[in-house]
Amino acid sequence: MEDEVDRLVAAWRRERPDLDVEPLEVLSRVSRLARHLDRARRIAFSEHGLEPWEFDVLTSLRRAGAPYQLSPGQLLTQTLVTSGTMTNRIDRLTKKGLVERLPDPNDRRGVLVRLTPEGRDRADQALAGLLAQERAILAQLSPDRRSDLAALLRQLTAPFDNVPG
User: Fold this and answer.
1) Cis link prior to 103 (omega < 30° from 0)?
2) How do the pLDDT tens digits run along the chain, 165 residues long?
3) What is the chain's Cα-based Rg?
4) Quick one: which of 79, 60, 42 has its CA closest to 119?
5) How many CA within 13 A on the CB side of residue 58?
6) Which of 47, 54, 42, 46 is nearest to 96 (CA)?
7) In which element (H, E) is residue 104 found?
8) pTM tops 0.85, yes or no
């Protein structure tokens, strides 16, 4: 079965036989798949009235377990955004009634961000929608092939995830 990347690679091999274009065979497919996944994610989130960034914050809190709260610093670490961006996001989610700010009992100057029941419901529903979209993308692969692919991708991404700063 031929895909667009096969045609792209063949064209580059014809036009630039002096270059080894083999990395394109893997990474162009990863890039194209990422675009399809981004589209599927946006569909799943919009069906539940969420933007991708809202889903990221809400699910960070949901994964924290009861009482579904984290400090803004912990949210920064999980979502990889700046402090100013996180403050803006918390403000917007608070206005929507999806999170609330509470005083941190361990730090008089600190706050905790807690998921509201509505935020928890929206996060749970959007996650179920996302998983349905992702299952559809992976449906062409057997469970063994999905496991193999996950292991290969982990091998490629782990060095980036384990770099300080």
Assistant:
1) no
2) 899 999 999 999 999 999 999 999 999 999 999 999 999 999 989 999 999 999 999 999 999 999 999 999 899 888 888 889 999 999 999 999 999 999 988 888 889 999 999 999 999 999 999 999 999 999 999 999 999 999 999 999 898 877 665
3) 20
4) 60
5) 28
6) 54
7) strand 99-104
8) no
Distance CA 97, CA 161 (A): 32
d(C-alpha 123, C-alpha 18), whole Å:
50
Check if the beta carbon of residue 70 is closer than 8 Å to that of residue 61: yes
What SS3 state is found at 116? coil
φ, ψ at 44 (rounded to 5°) = -60, -40
Are 5 and 24 within 8 A, CB to CB? Answer: yes
Between the two ends of the chain, the Cα-to-Cα distance in Å is 41
Dihedral in degrees, nearest 10, Cα atoms 60, 66, 68, 73: -70
